[in-house]
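Much of what follows relies on a compact textual record of a protein's fold. A complete example follows; check for yourself that the lines match position by position.
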Amino acid sequence: MGLGQATGITISQPASGAGGGGTVTSVTAGNAAPLFTTSVATGTTTPAVSFAVSNAPGNSVLGNTGSTAAAPSYSSNPSVLTLTANSVNASTVTAAALIGNATTATTANNLPGGLLGAIPYQSAAGTTTLLNGSTSAATVVLTQLGNGTTSAAPGWNAITGTPGFAVFSQGPTLTGTVTTTAISNSAAITSLRFRATGNAPTIAAGAGAGTTPTIAIVAGSTGQSGQIQLTSGTPTVAGVIGTITFNAAISPAPVAVILMPGNAATALVSTTIFTTTPSTTAWTFSTGATALVAATPYVWYYWVI
């Protein structure tokens, strides 16, 4: 009689003899592909069954990647490999678009969750969080405030004004050389000094400078600050001394001009000199009722604010 299984161990004995007794004459064993193979040594005397694990193909997993029940096999299906390599299970899979490749991973729809405008950032080591996009109708900027050693989560900071002219609701600390066209702040601005750069404005003498005066903007001056030198003509009359025109229009318009005397003669007449409110393109300064002294050197320092 025989006892066996299609791919298992088979034991054979003589057909004759009483039931329940007999002598084993042969032992054979089949393979369990693709897991292992078997071999039998001395199968007709003292059988020894050995099992050898079969090699698996590189970059593959054992399972059933089909939609119906079937025997398992090794598969190199990239979607299966992606899930396996990242230890993703049913409790962590939140989107069908989680799997992908180097090409599809560059598209936004491969990041599950999040709303329009959301920005991912690291909220802790190994932890990614989404900062929701700003829903404010006003212009905002992305800011961060650390403590000198540790960073912090980013956030949206509201600004006001036209693009390029921003007012921060939380005052930033600016160090080194800061280049800007305009700064506005509702609180005090603390600085060792303000130094403007840029092209110098032009100046044209008015009747108040006298007949045939010599007037100039000193080299190194800018539209924000600088020095004006004048040698008045002869004779002089009361009126506009000079018109200063910016190299380029300034928006919004400055609010005032501060003039400071640069020599003794200028200091004597400083109480009678005044400026107009500057426009986006120019400003003027003039004498009062009293004209300048003819053929006299005058020096003014100006600061446009």
Summary: Confidence is low (pLDDT under 50) at residues 1-6, 84-88, 93-98.
